[in-house]
Automatic annotation (TrEMBL):
Domain Response regulatory: 5-119
Chain ranges passing through the membrane: none
Source organism (scientific name): Simiduia curdlanivorans
Keywords assigned: ATP-binding, DNA-binding, Nucleotide-binding, Phosphoprotein, Transcription, Transcription regulation
Domain Sigma-54 factor interaction: 133-362
Record PTM 4-aspartylphosphate, positions in chain: D54
Protein name: Sigma-54-dependent transcriptional regulator
CDD domains hit by this protein: AAA (cd00009)
């Protein structure tokens, strides 16, 4: 088996020795350098699989080395070793391109985990274009490149963008392309957890630690061990929970409710929000220090109306998925339907496009969707981009659902729950009614 090779840069002989012994035991060939100059020479002479560097060297800083490696050897993962508690340096180095950091005193277990993650290859090349994210417009191409580049890094990433524009999908792609791809991807909507259960949901609890805690329970952090924890709607975390989350990220350790002992964690944190976190900080709803920690790298997901050239590709991907789900033949759109879609601003982004097409599919005759089947009200078609920014996709969906629910229940009551008759009354097919009943939770089968 070919040995991996490591470049270790430190002017402190003790640490150099510790790193050397640990990595040699992990079957690495180690090259040692005591200064930036020596590191540069080693980089010019050898190929490495990982570089570990201290921050302070006689002739420069670890960040200088990170920058140098970024520009000359962009595929070489480099991790920095920082003084205990020096968060600023750790973050600065990750922003500069370090894939992770270790703080002193060095914890051997963490060091081994870091080295393993760094040298583990991500998903195979074939998966890299990731079919997950449909889109070839410039903005999507750039986003995909960024995702590919950031997948190996362990830096926390904040993904911003409007509702339904693909933030979770981006997080999944980062996970799928990175070295943690065999580990779990745990997604959690921070706004959906009852406040009183939050700490236990995040960190787990011990049996008997509070009323209702009938058994030991693991939390999301433990469930995501070795993988990625995706905190969706992170702006909705209450302030007291923000403090606890900050601590967990900083210490890379958690304490389940009702226990004293800390548990180390090895997870990557990705977060997302459709809110402007800067504004939330000013309003006193979000902690600046937590923002700083989760936003080491920032990715922005574009709204659908900013990449309308992707609309047709997205539409056809969604229709293929629908055909597979409903075991139907290929579904097509008339040119008129395509025109309708192109004129609509999609305040609810790709999610709204999916909902629109699914609804149209259940309404359409045969397998061809016409303009009218899309039910895009003229008022909505004309909505300006500025107005649509104020609309919230989820609110719109909820409203439409309420209207749908009230019409359907009325028709069902009038026909004494005869669904064939109710469908006729509503002017929709039986198939469409059945689909809607299921979706609204009114299905009695
Ligand atoms: N580029 C894309 N290609 C294919 N499907 C996409 C794309 N972007 C979003 N989607 C689909 O749109 C839906 C919404 O995406 P996702 O849940 O990732 O959005 P989000 O921004 O996280 O939404 P929210 O802010 O409401 O949590 C999903 O079903 C997702 O698969």
């Amino acid at each position: 088996m070919n040995k991996n090779s490591a470049l270790i840069v430190d002017d402190e002989p003790d640490i150099l020795e510790l790193l050397n012994i640990t990595l040699t035991r992990m079957n690495f060939n180690c090259v040692l350098a005591a200064s930036l100059r020596e590191a540069e020479q080693a980089l010019a002479a050898h190929q490495f699989d990982i570089c570990l560097t201290d921050m302070r060297m006689p002739d420069g800083s670890g960040i200088d080395l990170v920058k140098l490696i970024q520009s000359n050897h962009p595929d070489l993962p480099v991790a920095v070793i920082t003084a205990h508690g020096n968060v600023d340096i750790a973050i600065e180095s990750m922003k500069a391109g370090a894939f992770d950091f270790l703080s002193k005193p060095i914890d051997i277990e963490r060091l081994r985990a870091l080295v393993k993650t760094a040298t583990k290859s991500g998903a195979p090349e074939a998966a890299l274009d990731n079919e997950l994210l449909v889109g070839t417009t410039d903005v999507m191409r750039k986003l995909k490149q960024q995702i590919h580049k950031l997948a190996r890094s362990q830096a926390p990433i904040l993904i911003t963008g409007e509702s339904g524009c693909g933030k979770e999908l981006i997080a999944r792609s980062i996970h799928a392309q990175g070295p943690r791809c065999d580990g779990p991807f745990i997604a959690i909507n921070c706004g959906a957890i009852p406040r009183e259960l939050m700490e236990s949901e995040f960190f787990g609890h011990k049996k008997g630690s509070f009323t209702g805690a009938n058994a030991d329970k693991i939390g999301l952090f433990q469930a995501a061990e070795g993988g990625t924890l995706f905190l969706d709607e992170v702006a909705d975390l209450p302030l007291d929970m923000q403090v606890k989350l900050l601590r967990a990220i900083q210490e890379k350790a958690i304490r389940p409710v009702g226990t004293q002992a800390e548990q180390k964690t090895n997870i990557r944190i990705l977060s997302a929000t459709h809110k402007n976190l800067q504004n939330e900080i000013v309003a006193g709803n979000f902690r600046q220090d937590l923002y700083y920690r989760i936003n080491v790298i920032h990715l922005h997901a574009p709204a659908l109306r900013e990449r309308m050239d992707d609309l047709e590709a997205l539409t056809s991907a969604i229709l293929n998925k629908l055909a597979a789900t409903y075991d139907s033949e290929k579904i097509t759109l008339t040119p008129d339907a395509i025109k309708h879609l192109k004129r609509y601003p999609f305040p609810g982004n790709v999610r709204e496009l999916e909902n629109t097409l699914e609804r149209a599919f259940t309404l359409c005759e045969g397998n061809t969707i016409r303009g009218d089947d899309l039910q895009l009200a003229p008022m909505q078609v004309e909505t300006s981009a500025t107005q649509s920014e104020e609309l919230n996709g989820q609110a719109l969906d909820k409203k439409l659902e309420e209207i749908e629910m009230s019409y359907i229940t009325k028709a069902l009551e009038e026909t004494r729950w005869n669904r064939t008759e109710a469908a006729k009354k509503l002017g929709i097919s039986f198939r469409s009614l059945r689909y809607r009943l299921k979706k609204l939770g009114l299905d009695t089968d």
